[in-house]
Amino acid sequence: MIKKSYFYLAIFFLCITASTVSVFAGSTDDEMKKYLKDIPFDIEIKVPKFRDANYLITEYGAVGDGITLNSEAIQKAIDKCNIGGGGHVIIPAGLWLTGPIQLRNDVDLHFETGAVLVFSTNFDLYQAIQVPGKKPVGLKSPISCSELQNIAITGDGIINGNGQYWRPVKQSKMTPSQWKALIKGGVQNGDVWYPSADMKEIKRPKMVNISECENILIEGITFQNSPDFALNVTRCENIVVRYAKVMNEWSAQNGDGLDFSSCENLLIYKCTVNAGDDGICIKSTKNIMKNVVVQDCIVYHAHGGFVIGSNTDGGIENLFVKNCTFSWSDIGLRFKSASDRGGLIKNVYVSDIFMKDISGDAISFDCTYENRVAGADADKKDAVKIPTFTNFHMKNIFCDGAERAFVIDGTPEAKINEIYLDNAVLSANKGFESNYGSAVKLSDVKILTKKSPVFSLTNTNDCTFKNITFTEGVDLLIKAGENVKGITVEGADAAKAKNKLEALSPDGIVIK
């Protein structure tokens, strides 16, 4: 009877282990389907499935003491899992020091609660990435894979990139006492600090780098302290990222959270990001980026909450963003590009966005990112890469606290047109500013500003502002500079403003 009891006990624990893994390997398909309902474009995504087989890294020699290097043991478990037909490579509770590792086909790298994967600060372990005939373009990422199918990183654990040993730090992002303590070590170069002299020359790796893969699941995992971007996914198809977290210090240089470039069919939901650069970012380089759904996410410190760009030259289309919160971000909704990296960005749908204490712009369209003015290099090859932002539909956007409510910054060549905003409350120091905007329509929007004017327009045409509410007693409703025409303001109680209009050419503006 005793042996029989042990047998049943063993079966019980095996079942517990199996069920724990399956939670992070596709058992929530019904939940996922609700996020793909009522999307204004066709999109189909399936979660990858994995064989019910577990490969525990300790069985291949891994030791979770924080000092034993486990690269070989972890890679052996991954390779064995792949050769055996796939399954789950289990990283149990412990502090697991490792160098770079590579994923394989049909492998779910699964972290149990309490598992912390820490990447070594021995930079010799990170192989240089060679391009024939050129200098190395960077170092191999801590976790990487290319041209794979059916892969996952799941679980309740933490991936820590030891980024403080890689990243430079700008003085402007430190308090005086923090900066004083920091420069006691490392190398200072003006207002930038480097961990060592070597770090000035090394191109830092993305912490998790996935390229040209299909059927990807990222679930539950926490990305922490990355050398560069936390998660970088390029030229991939059929991707689900859910319940993931990014914890980078706001001072982390290039410490982006979740970055995707030139991918197709991407679903992101229930993720939380605290980043040193952009939070959730969509890009394209050479190849198109399309069919993206982002819902129920939170972004804290970041240069932008939800971001498009700056690289957009492959084209971006069909994005749906709903029910997201941005708190303390530099910019809330950030759409950026420039003359050397632009393309056509269209069919973007954004709704139910809630923002608090945004230090810069609540909504920003910028075609002059990093001061690259489209058309300035007309005689150069890169001049063909001029951005066009068009057909953006935004509704139910709310912001309590920003420097500027809504900013459009285009150029004669870089188009920002057909931008629609319905039902919004934007409380900011400054209101709506447009330079080279066209066919912009605002309806039922409250722009509550501390400074005048409510609308500041230059080089802007064919815009309609309907049912606009603004702060009573504001000094000036509209200030219009050169090349402003076809502007109609309807339903605003203009009498609340001390002055309605200050314009170089008032004939092009109608206030009803």
Q: Any idea what the radius of gyration is?
A: 25 Å
Quick one: CATH superfamily of the domain at 1-166 and 204-276?
Single-stranded right-handed beta-helix, Pectin lyase-like
Broad shape: elongated
Structural class, from helix and strand content?
mainly beta
Oligomeric state of the chains present here: single chain
How many strands in all? Answer: 43
Q: Please report the first level of CATH classification, the CATH class of the domain at 1-166 and 204-276.
A: Mainly Beta
CATH topology of the domain at 1-166 and 204-276: Pectate Lyase C-like
The low-pLDDT segments are 1-27, 374-379
Report the helical percentage: under 10%
The average pLDDT is: 91
Give a short overview:
By secondary structure, the chain is mainly beta. Among the domains are: 1-166 and 204-276, Pectate Lyase C-like; 171-201, no CATH class.
Written description of the protein model:
The protein is mostly beta strands and 512 residues long. Among the domains are: 1-166 and 204-276, Pectate Lyase C-like (3 Solenoid), CATH 2.160.20; 171-201, no CATH class. Helices cover 10% and strands 47% of the residues. It has four helices and 43 strands. It has a 24-stranded parallel beta sheet that branches. A 14-stranded parallel beta sheet has the order 5-10-16-19-22-25-28-30-32-34-36-38-40-42. Strand 8 and strand 9 (138-139) form a beta hairpin. The longest helix is centred in the first third of the chain and has 22 residues, at 2-23.
